[in-house]
Structure formats: C-alpha cells, structure tokens
Amino acid sequence: MLKRLLLPCLLLAAVLSAGCLHSKKTAKPKDSSALASDLEESFKQRWVEKRTAELVAQGTTADAARPQAIAEFRVQYGFTSAAQK
Q1: Among candidates 39, 34, 47, 50, which has minimal Cα distance to 77?
Q2: Measuring CA to CA, how many Å separate 81 from each of 17, 23, 40?
Q3: Cα 17–19–21 angle (5° rounding)?
Q4: What is the pLDDT of residues 64-77, one digit of tens each?
Q5: Residue 20 pLDDT > 90, yes or no?
Q6: How far is Cα of residue 34 from the mean position of the Cα atoms in its chain?
C-alpha cells in the first residue's frame, strides 16, 4: 500500500515544486514618453540630414534643401510628435 501511494505522491510533489507554477511574472516597466520623444527627435534629425544631402546632390541649394527636407518629413511622418515641432 505504501509503494502504491509513493509514486503518486512523488509525482504530485514534482509538479507542485516546479518553478513555473509559483513564479509570478512581474509587469514590465512602461516605456517613458520622454524616451520615445528623444528617439523620434533623433530619427527626425538623421532623416532631415540625409534628405538634405540628397537634395543638394540633385542640385538644390543648401539654403533651400533643409526647409524642403523638413516639410517632406512633416508630410511623410506627420503622425510622430517630432513632426509636430
């Protein structure tokens, strides 16, 4: 009788002692909106610099290329907070 109960008891103990059942997942910290804004601003600066260089290579003057690149960024990425600035 003892041998009959030993196997189910050992199996039950193994299942209950597994780390998966007792571990609680902690909530991940929410992303900071400041971090997202910094990332968008960095993307805007790099995109505008690249587009300005492309426009200058195509023959647009440097004084006219940057405002045109900023306007294109606002049209293409208007959903970002960086485009609103």
Answers
A1: 47
A2: 49, 39, 7
A3: 80
A4: 999 999 999 999 99
A5: no
A6: 13
Structure-token match 């601003």, residue found: 41
**Strand runs (DSSP E) across 1-85, as ranges?**
none
Distance, CA of 85 to CA of 72 (rounded, Å): 14
60: Cβ contacts below 8 Å, ≥ 6 apart: 68
The C-alpha atoms of residue 40 and residue 10 are separated, in whole angstroms, by 56
Residue 80 has what DSSP assignment?
S
- At 52, list the tokens: 């300005």
Residue with tokens 């492309």: 54
- Write out the H or E segment, with its range, that includes residue 25: none
Contact 66, 48 (CB under 8 A): yes
pTM of the model: 0.61
